[in-house]
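Q: What would this chain look like folded?
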Amino acid sequence: MEFEFTGKVAIVTGASSGLGATTASLLARSGAQVVMTGRDEIRLAGVQKAAVESGGRAIAVVADLQDDSSFSRITRAAVDAYGLIDVLVHCAALFEMGEVETTDTDSIDRMLRVNVRAPMLLTRETIPHLNEQSSIVFVSSTGAHLGFAGRAPYTATKGAIEAFSRSLAVELAPKTRVNVVAPGFIATPMLTAQCEQAPDLENWIIEQTPTMFVGTPEDVAASIMMLACATTSRYVTGSTLICDGGWVAKG
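A: My prediction, written as structure tokens:
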């Protein structure tokens, strides 16, 4: 599917790797002027350079979303470079495994800060600069829809952001649409690291997935693009699109 974002301005967090890098690159190739932000300066520069070399327009803003000063800096970079903001995609996330009984408070606080507080505050910062027919897309997880032992604090953050997005959709209508993509097991560095620790994990995932394959970052990026695009999803807001190969349906 071809998505048309010519002249649109998009901010993508977590753009130095994984879903964020793929989504930011796809937006640039689709004509958007992209503000890519992430913590890893070297990897982020590589994503931005590749986008520009392929004919896209993109700038990189190195930022740690645990730093409150980053929200105004990211927003100001977008406004100074391109004017108003049309698309905001929240891909950045922190995942730390652990049973509730043994998860330390610092780990819980870090995930809450990056996965919930940061997207809330960055969204708040961008609201005055959102264009007409703008769109916000949050990235959640199937963990917000199914129980996963050893992930309760992480999945709680994703459930929180889905609840936030629904109320925000009503609050910002009709100017701005707000939606969520909830990926399942996707072949990103986060999953790769888990598979390296548990060699049988990938085969188990495939066996349990109705589509019988692990999704790619491109699969999720396409779902994000569909929801972000005013022509493909103009009547969709306050919704969650589950991109998981059938995991939630299977239960």
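The mean pLDDT is 94.
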